[in-house]
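At this stage, I put together one protein's amino acid sequence and its backbone structure tokens, which the following lines show:
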Amino acid sequence: MAQFLQVHPDNPQQRLLKQAVALLTRGGVVAAPTDSSYALVCHLDDKAAVEQMRRMRQVDDKHHLTLMCRDLSELANYARVDNRQYRLLKAATPGAYTFILEATKEVPRRVSHPQRKTIGLRVPQNRCLLDLLELHSAPLLATTLIAAGETDPMNDAQEIRDRFEHDLAAVIDAGACPLEPTTVVDLTTMDNGGGPTLIRQGRGPLSILGMG
């Protein structure tokens, strides 16, 4: 049965977020609010939790999972970033963007794309999620919470609890968040002088990236 942790959206209670961190450390999958709908999050190095997230989403290992990072310096530990890519990242983070980049050796091979060796990365702007990352002291692996067979992400904590209470360790309720996924941009196409490639238009405006 999933724990239901109700926190203030702008000043989340640290004791409740510490409970969520403890559950993540023990291998749980947690539903957490972001600046672009709810996401499923788990510990990066927990194989069983990663497989649980994929089962819940009904996606295979070719579906890009995302590393939620506290800031750009942390992101750079997990992705290979050149100067051109870094300028785009700096312009758009924190925010509702997911960037596809080449993973470093800090990323377990089982969570990166099996052929491309890439991973999604983002720095969120949601206060609750940033505090959770800070208390966890490391990135969290994540995927947008879209129920199997549906196309829209979920944004209501009670509905998430009712639907997934036996699959989740906890639901963090900080009130409704946006009902729109991130904008996904592939930055690996910038190698050899190319430009970024739009994979999915979402909440993040393209104008910040000089696209569209």
